[in-house]
Amino acid sequence: MVPSEENQFVPKEIHNAAEEPRVLCIIQDTTRARTVNERLTLNLPASTTLSKLYEDVAHKAGYVNGSFDLTWGNTQNMAPLEHNSEMSLSDSSFEPDGKKNFLQLTDKDGEQPQIASVSGYVGLVNQAMTCYLNSLLQTLFMTPEFRNALYNWEFEESEEDPVTSIPYQLQRLFVLLQTSKKRAIETTDVTRSFGWDSSEAWQQHDVQELCRVMFDALEQKWKQTEQADLINQLYQGKLKDYVRCLECGYESWRIDTYLDIPLVIRPFGASQAYGSVEEALQAFIQPETLDGPNQYFCERCKKKCDARKGLRFLHFPYLLTLQLKRFDFDYTTMHRIKLNDRMTFPEELDMSPFIDVEDEKSPQTESCTDSGAENEGSCHSDQMSNDFSTDDCVDEGICLDSTSSTERALKPKSLLTFELFSVMVHSGSAAGGHYYAYIKSFSDGQWYSFNDQHVSKITQDDIRKTYGGSSGSRGYYSSAFARSVIQLLCLSAGFLAVEDFPEHIKSLVQKEKESEEQEKRQREIERNTCKIKLFCVHPLKMMMESKLEVHKDKTLREATEMAYKLMELEGVVTLDCCRLVKYDEFHEYLERSYEGEEDTPMGLLLGGVKSSYMFDLLLETRRSDQVFQPYKPGEVMVKVHVVDLKTETIALPISVRAYLNQSITEFKQLIAQATGLSAETMRVVLERCYNDLRLLNVPNKTLKAEGFFRSNKVFVESSVLTDHQVPFTDSLLWKLLDRHGNTIRLLVLLPEQSPGTLASRTLCQKAGEDSDGPFEGLKGNRKSVEAILEESTEKLKNLSLQLQQGSSASDSQKSSDTSDFEHIESPTQEADSNSSLCVAADSRELENRISGSSDTENQFVCEERSDSEVNNDRSTSSVDSDILSSSHSSDTLCNADSGPIQLANGLDSHSITSSRRSKAHEGKKETWDTAEEDSGTDSEYDDNGKSKAEAQYLYFRAEPYSQDDASWDTHKCLVVHVDKRITLAAFKQNLEPYVGVPSSQFKVFRVYANNQEFESVRLNETLSSFSDDNKITIRLGRALKKGEYRVKVFQLLVNEPEPCKFLVDTVFAKGMTVRQSKEELLPQLKEQCKLDLSIDRVRLRKKTWKNPGTVFLDYHVYEEDISISSNWEVFLEVLDDSEKMKSMSQLAILTRKWNPATMKLGPFQEAILESSSVEELKEKLSEMSDIPLENLEFAKGRGTFPCDISVLEIHQDLDWNPKVSTLNVWPLYICDDGAVVFYSRDEPLELSEDERNELMKKESSRLLKTGHRVSYSPRKEKALKIYLDGGPVRDPGQD
């Protein structure tokens, strides 16, 4: 809230000039989010008492005095100042003479301060769009007769569920409105008793409709009670509906009942509105003459005669409701509108001119009284019901006036005067708006505005503003105010006072008070409860996370016991072996421990109760023979990894704590004490961010100057002295750490047909039969991993070349991706093959050398990653990340987006095993074709089948996948640790022994989070876009060679319901003609799709989404005449005859005949045009259909092929017979093959309404099945309904 001018800072000179010292108080309101950044400033005399301070603050802040506390804002003292203390500010530690005294305005007893109400009334909370409900409820609450009668009704809990009892929930709401100290009350219990769910709160309804429906529901609930006829007694009136013959005076009539009187604002067809309620009432009872064709058949005259038909009021209700019908329908614009014409209503309305006071009926009058309406007390007459039902308005407003009267039958006309009591206002347009109520209080005669939770006083000027009369009286989005209903009251019964409540209401009041007290206590507990994130390294379950909720007055010892139970450590460790420490999860940093503070309240330790904390807590555990290490504030935590260059291993981290002002020399001494290494020969490398390695070689430099922060990671070694003498970036230490930081862990799923998978398992099992695991390597003479891979690769390549040469005569050699492998067998018969397939065995022993631990400790634990981390690695869009235009250089050293993931046991998910490039590949690096590189079609092999891929980094190690994953078959899955700077070509080479075929004969697919797979085809691109635990699927099939493209072939079926059908995946090459591609495609179609086609009866054409495009001619050459790209799609179309398209100057149009006589569309037919002339098109259509040129009409179809459209809309929606001479101009724009043209000759039939409706149903069903658009159908408004049985009956299968 903004402080007023008198609350601004006062200059010190004025203070000094004052006779009495003054105290400057600056108060921060912390009770609400919108006020937390605002300040109240008070400059008070030093003699001001604390109680007066509370009064002044309450006045300035707009709060009720006593509903808030004031505490010191700059001290740890959280105790509030005394409310009723007469102690002066100077005696209460306030500092005078211009010094600032900071105070905080806080909640009292867990409740927000009460906003001072100028009205004394309680508002209602708007659930979403329930303003119409709030307006009606406030009006009923302010009606003494209704409220008192509701209080006199007693709820029997044994007979009904209180949750579904509408009268009981209204009773509770009224009690709260009368007795609660809250600013606003929720209405959810009332709407729940209506049987509504949360969706109903978002439905806009008419307040008058709600009034009728709720009154009906109350009458049903009050049957056989004293309140059974309450609604009729208060709101029901009677009127006479009559017809009088003008010749004989015979009158036929009936008596109807009403709850409200609908008044027309503007008569139908008139431009002038009624100026007042009196005029509208006079028009309501004005009779109309029935003459001409509308003559009335008189029972007495036995013929049709002129007559008068009209209404007369016989009896007015206690509370008269007038409904001003401001919502109408504009037949010009076909929209609902709101009439904003001015219509006045008086403060007192004399209804005597409108009542029929005939004591006796004329002898010429015959009674036709509707006894049912008379006796049953029906709420609505037929005439009234019809009037309401034809009102299409959704958001009409109401104005309620009320008068009370003596017995209406004996009441003179002069006493039929009604006093304005309530006006329900609708602000907005016919499309929607907001309801609020102006209601007169009978307690003080003051008018109040009840606008949801806001209640305020208003004047007569505010009421007069609801008359209307704003500009633009018939606008669709006009926003005039008024929509009124009037009730009049002469003698009002007073409201029941609290002390006069019936006993059951007194019990209800007590029950609600207890409920509020319970809620208050609960809020107090919540307000004083600290909620903080808790972590624990569980000895059995690894890292656990939970939320610790502890009262601020609980001690650290009690909080530790609560955390001990929360983390389920009972029976695992004892309570005295646990402690809580301050922890930073983001940096994995132990900030401080709390030695000697076991009896300190948690509120002080955590800095008070807050919605969120900038730190966490860690429940630390120890063994019984260990001692907790103290963590002091200001220390930094360092994870120290010891590196052994001889064995090329990196040990698990050791935690060391240091201070930022310590020097590197002092830091080395700490590490030497923790690791036992020599500080003199020690090298320390700091990893500041991902793979950013910094050698700490300046002895006197501090840790802060070197970039240390809360949590740090260093590598130390002192084993090889000769490596100290070379530059750091050329040393073995740097190379080992660099490879360590760039190694990633991939999960590779091998194909089922893989010849190498089973063989590798079998042979490695035999070779390592003395080992503990099936993949343990031999201890004796063993070839290097690189040699094994090289020998295996060469043998597999030779085998593949031999098989290819032996099958070169086959026509289907290139037809299928999988046919190339039908005769490939696993090369497992040779001894060399035996050794080549034992790579995993070698790798397992190398892994043992890393950690030097048992097999169980060697298992890499895959740490789960958050969705955000996975998504940040690479977007999972439809475009494969491996075929993006950007490529990665082979000399890239690091990727800042992905780094080594720390495992739970402290070991990085990377292998440190060294690897060297095979000498057979040295010196063979070649230059790649940039254009081909951009197209994503580079081949790994040249014409002789030799490898061209060359990479600087070739670390690769594979092991069997041992994790439990139901989605992957672990028997066909490998865990691969690989340097992510390796190229895809080199990665495929290393996978050859496990797949069992050369790398040119299998494809690599990257699996994204949504299980979508995209092929990786850029062989010279690195794996830097991959991250730990990414999944890869290997599929058998010939990999693309240089200049080749993978193509999806779809069949075009123009006259089928689904015109696009997928056939096969194939490969097209640069420089290939269309006919050559058809020659290779047809055998593949015959084998896989059972389609035996003739090459002269098929054509290929462009595919854009589902639209057929350019027809490809046999002599067209790919990449010269036809642009082609990766994952290209084409249509294959089967022709009835030989190809008629011979030249690119021709145009192939798809035509469809429209027959209005039968309301049907014919099949598609193709028309070949030699030019883009409209005349040639019309001649071709005339020739195809025998329609004379002068009678032929045509139009271009719209939308996606097949441009389907409803037969009811085809003549209105399409542009028929455009006045153009060529096809390539607007509105045709036919510039390419595949355009759809409709043609016809007849005018559409004139359909009856029934025929049109029947045809519309058929067309809607047809178009929905084909997935095409249907005519727009506006949203149906949901009818307002109150369910007396507790809720609507739902279809069990609806969900």
UniProtKB/TrEMBL annotation:
<feature type="compositionally biased region" description="Low complexity">
    <location>
        <begin position="875"/>
        <end position="891"/>
    </location>
</feature>
<dbReference type="InterPro" id="IPR045578">
    <property type="entry name" value="USP47_C"/>
</dbReference>
<dbReference type="Pfam" id="PF25985">
    <property type="entry name" value="Ubiquitin_USP47_N"/>
</dbReference>
<feature type="compositionally biased region" description="Basic and acidic residues">
    <location>
        <begin position="862"/>
        <end position="872"/>
    </location>
</feature>
<feature type="compositionally biased region" description="Polar residues">
    <location>
        <begin position="850"/>
        <end position="859"/>
    </location>
</feature>
<dbReference type="Pfam" id="PF19718">
    <property type="entry name" value="USP47_C"/>
</dbReference>
<dbReference type="GO" id="GO:0005829">
    <property type="term" value="C:cytosol"/>
</dbReference>
<protein>
    <recommendedName>
        <fullName>Ubiquitin carboxyl-terminal hydrolase 47</fullName>
        <ecNumber>3.4.19.12</ecNumber>
    </recommendedName>
</protein>
<dbReference type="InterPro" id="IPR050164">
    <property type="entry name" value="Peptidase_C19"/>
</dbReference>
<dbReference type="Pfam" id="PF14560">
    <property type="entry name" value="Ubiquitin_2"/>
</dbReference>
<dbReference type="InterPro" id="IPR000626">
    <property type="entry name" value="Ubiquitin-like_dom"/>
</dbReference>
<dbReference type="InterPro" id="IPR001394">
    <property type="entry name" value="Peptidase_C19_UCH"/>
</dbReference>
<dbReference type="InterPro" id="IPR028889">
    <property type="entry name" value="USP"/>
</dbReference>
<keyword id="KW-0788">Thiol protease</keyword>
<dbReference type="InterPro" id="IPR018200">
    <property type="entry name" value="USP_CS"/>
</dbReference>
<keyword id="KW-0645">Protease</keyword>
<feature type="compositionally biased region" description="Polar residues">
    <location>
        <begin position="826"/>
        <end position="837"/>
    </location>
</feature>
<keyword id="KW-0833">Ubl conjugation pathway</keyword>
<feature type="compositionally biased region" description="Low complexity">
    <location>
        <begin position="802"/>
        <end position="818"/>
    </location>
</feature>
<feature type="domain" description="USP">
    <location>
        <begin position="122"/>
        <end position="480"/>
    </location>
</feature>
<feature type="region of interest" description="Disordered">
    <location>
        <begin position="802"/>
        <end position="945"/>
    </location>
</feature>
<dbReference type="GO" id="GO:0005634">
    <property type="term" value="C:nucleus"/>
</dbReference>
<feature type="compositionally biased region" description="Polar residues">
    <location>
        <begin position="364"/>
        <end position="383"/>
    </location>
</feature>
<feature type="compositionally biased region" description="Acidic residues">
    <location>
        <begin position="929"/>
        <end position="942"/>
    </location>
</feature>
<dbReference type="GO" id="GO:0006508">
    <property type="term" value="P:proteolysis"/>
</dbReference>
<dbReference type="InterPro" id="IPR038765">
    <property type="entry name" value="Papain-like_cys_pep_sf"/>
</dbReference>
<dbReference type="Pfam" id="PF00443">
    <property type="entry name" value="UCH"/>
</dbReference>
<dbReference type="GO" id="GO:0004843">
    <property type="term" value="F:cysteine-type deubiquitinase activity"/>
</dbReference>
<dbReference type="GO" id="GO:0016579">
    <property type="term" value="P:protein deubiquitination"/>
</dbReference>
<keyword id="KW-0378">Hydrolase</keyword>
<feature type="region of interest" description="Disordered">
    <location>
        <begin position="355"/>
        <end position="383"/>
    </location>
</feature>
